[in-house]
Design brief:
single chain; DNA polymerase, domain 1; hpI Integrase, Chain A; 3 strands; 4% strand; Integrase_SAM-like_N; DNA-binding; cell cycle; Tyrosine_recombinase_XerC/XerD
């Protein structure tokens, strides 16, 4: 990349060129997921716009502060402003990590002489246990979804709205069974292809964070649900002009399903449950991990299944299991 004069207008904080160059670096050199790329872009843009606002700039009050004028004091003032707005510690920690990554990149590219974030402390995240479902709640969700998938037409029959709804129910059941059986991330689910599922050996292959491939075992109900979807439901949603031939899960219009659509499906079934405030596809990931540990799976195996790079991340689920055990003990023991 051509290095412009650092005193020139292209180094203005509001200039989007630097953000897009950083995004290209994340995407093509770091192989970050699109979800991570979007978060980093948003976080860095938010920082640069905030710092370019006069009442947040602690050093340079000029209308167009320069990237090279950014200081540690500016970054600390920005973090203080986020806290004042009531932004959660987890979000502040993520934004801090995004900004530190951006400034390290800018220093490497020669866009700034020093990295002002080198001494910036990352706020500690709140230690909150992830929401999970009980075995009974999970069974109710899967049974209710299966009940909606009983009227799929045979080949050659009329493909009316009722049949399309039944096909979507088959898809939803397959997605929910897979999420619970494997603990995969929603981004991994939507990226799966038909060839990702090995129904004979009961396993799926997914591409996780950092483009890392891993193989995850799945149970027989998940295999059966995916088979029913691919054989009976998916053909009803295929549209020649919209459908990627290898996409496993499709939206109503025939294209590859997106993360937002899966989130809507999961939120709907969780809301129908009526006795949980948990929301989002990650609930099934948390639930799968917790139920595996409750059932006696060892921590290393769960780490591999979830695709965690650090065992410390997986250990969080042991606390969930302990808390559940403690609640059961308190309710059942006469002297608790």
């Amino acid at each position: 990349m051509t290095q412009p004069d650092q005193s020139g207008p292209l180094l203005a904080l509001r200039d989007e060129e630097w953000i897009e160059d950083f995004v290209a670096y994340l995407r093509h050199e770091q192989h970050r997921s699109e979800q991570t790329v979007r978060a980093y872009r948003s976080d860095v843009r938010g920082l640069l716009l905030d710092i370019a606002t006069p009442d947040l700039a602690t050093k340079n009050e000029a209308p167009e502060p320069q990237l090279g004028s950014l200081t540690l004091q500016d970054l600390r003032a920005w973090l203080a402003e986020l806290n004042r707005r009531g932004v959660s510690r987890a979000t502040v920690a993520r934004k801090t990590a995004s900004v530190r990554g951006f400034l390290r990149w800018a220093r490497r590219e020669g866009l700034i002489d020093t990295d002002p974030s080198a001494k910036l402390m990352t706020p500690r995240k709140e230690s909150r246990l992830p929401p999970t479902l009980t075995t009974a709640q999970t069974t109710r969700i899967l049974d209710a979804t299966a009940a909606r998938a009983t009227s799929v037409p045979q080949e050659g029959q009329d493909e009316g709205e009722d049949q399309i709804r039944a096909a979507l129910a088959l898809r939803d059941l397959a997605m929910l069974e897979l999420l619970y059986a494997s603990g995969i991330r929603v981004g991994e689910l939507v990226g799966m292809n038909l060839s990702s599922v090995d129904s004979v050996d009961g396993k799926v292959t997914v591409i996780g964070k950092g483009d890392k491939e891993r193989v995850v075992p799945i149970n027989r109900p998940a295999v059966n649900a995916v088979t029913s979807w691919t054989e009976r439901g998916r053909p009803l949603l295929v549209r020649a002009e919209h459908t990627p031939p290898d996409a496993l899960f499709l939206g109503k219009r025939g294209g590859r399903i997106g993360v937002r659509q899966v989130r809507d499906v999961v939120n709907d079934v969780l809301a129908e449950l009526g006795d949980t405030s948990a929301r989002g596809p990650h609930v099934f990931r948390h639930t799968a991990a917790t139920h595996l540990l409750d059932g006696g799976a060892d921590l290393r195996s769960v780490q591999e299944i979830l695709g965690h790079s650090s065992l410390q991340t997986t250990q969080l689920y042991t606390h969930v299991s302990i808390e559940r055990l403690r609640r059961g003990y308190t309710q059942a023991h006469p002297r608790a």
